[in-house]
């Protein structure tokens, strides 16, 4: 099978297991190809944990879940030096961050020190303990989740740390038809039904790295690159496009936003089987890339304007070419 066929087969299998969450499945694969991390926000029970767990079964990689709690320590995530009394030395004990796929469940429940330790590892791809630095695996993806319902006793992520995430994905409830399919899937799994779709052969890490390279090499016309740059610039200088837009945005996207937009648009185009990036690819990922990178004004919040509505306006006002 070609690289595209391997990833396509993996996507179809994941969608058969994570019913009604096609967007989440696609964003996970985009993050895998774009070599970035996901922040997923959604109510409990929407298969966020199951999605990344099943992804780990569909690729050659190990998975670890960390439940973030207020009493968690940075060393519980990164690992720490353990004293060995038999020879009086210290030996580094790796933490859960050293797995290929890591689920940081309810990241906003842990205090700032723990969040900072995780996000530093995400950005630097290494962990420093004492005088030593330890590299993380080459295939490394963190999916952090947030519960938008219960905010009591939580520590919201600062904007500067949110910027480390490639995308911020919002997960909603499945529709009626998907809910019926979920019931059937759970019954089939409980009965070990033979009707369940067979899990494909795991995609090797070498294949994932090769697919990343192919997505990086996709043709992107200068006009498309300019479009991505102008979207970012419009978020920083909204007054050039609309006074209403200017009244909604306090701070626009950082350069990380433009880089993420380019990488995600390329991965989106590659997963669609194209050898070039189109404006549709940019627009398809724009909300997830910019959602956590825009700081809205008090006026916008007072009028009930959210980041998605602001991004809609950006896409409407910035010309494609």
From TrEMBL:
Residues annotated as domain ATPase AAA-3: 37-167
The keyword ATP-binding is annotated on this UniProt entry: yes
Coiled-coil ranges from the UniProt annotation: none
GO MF annotation terms: ATP binding; ATP hydrolysis activity
Keyword line: ATP-binding, Nucleotide-binding
Domain of life: Bacteria
PANTHER family to which the protein is assigned, alphabetical: MAGNESIUM-CHELATASE SUBUNIT CHLD, MOXR FAMILY PROTEIN
Annotated protein name in UniProt: MoxR family ATPase
Species, as recorded: Dasania phycosphaerae
């Amino acid at each position: 099978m070609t690289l595209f066929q391997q990833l396509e087969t993996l996507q179809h299998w994941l969608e058969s297991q994570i019913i009604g969450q096609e967007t989440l499945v696609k964003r996970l694969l985009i993050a895998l190809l774009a070599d970035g991390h996901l922040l997923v926000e959604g109510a409990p029970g929407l298969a966020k944990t199951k999605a990344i767990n099943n992804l780990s079964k569909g690729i050659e990689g190990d998975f670890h879940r960390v439940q973030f709690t207020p009493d968690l320590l940075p060393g519980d995530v990164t690992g720490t030096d353990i004293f060995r009394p038999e020879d009086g030395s210290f030996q580094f004990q790796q933490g859960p961050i050293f797995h290929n796929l890591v689920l940081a469940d309810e990241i906003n429940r842990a205090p700032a020190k723990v969040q900072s330790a995780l996000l530093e590892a995400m950005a630097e791809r290494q962990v420093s303990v004492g005088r030593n630095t330890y590299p993380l695996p080459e295939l490394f993806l963190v999916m952090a989740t947030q519960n938008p319902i219960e905010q009591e006793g939580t520590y919201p992520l600062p904007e500067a740390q949110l910027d480390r995430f490639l995308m911020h994905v919002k997960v909603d409830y499945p529709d009626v038809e998907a809910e019926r399919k979920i019931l059937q899937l759970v019954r089939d799994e409980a009965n070990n039904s033979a009707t369940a779709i067979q899990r494909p052969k795991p995609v090797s890490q070498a294949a994932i790295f090769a697919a990343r390279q192919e997505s990086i090499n996709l043709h992107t016309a200068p006009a498309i690159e300019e479009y991505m740059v102008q979207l970012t610039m419009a978020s920083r200088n909204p007054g050039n496009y609309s006074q209403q837009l200017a009244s909604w945005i306090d701070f626009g996207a950082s350069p990380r936003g433009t880089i993420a937009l380019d990488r995600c648009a390329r991965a989106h185009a590659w997963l669609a089987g194209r050898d070039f990036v189109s404006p549709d690819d940019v627009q398809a990922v724009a909300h997830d890339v910019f959602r956590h990178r825009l700081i809205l004004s008090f006026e916008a919040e007072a009028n009930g304007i959210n980041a998605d509505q602001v991004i809609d306006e950006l896409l409407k006002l910035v010309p494609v070419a």
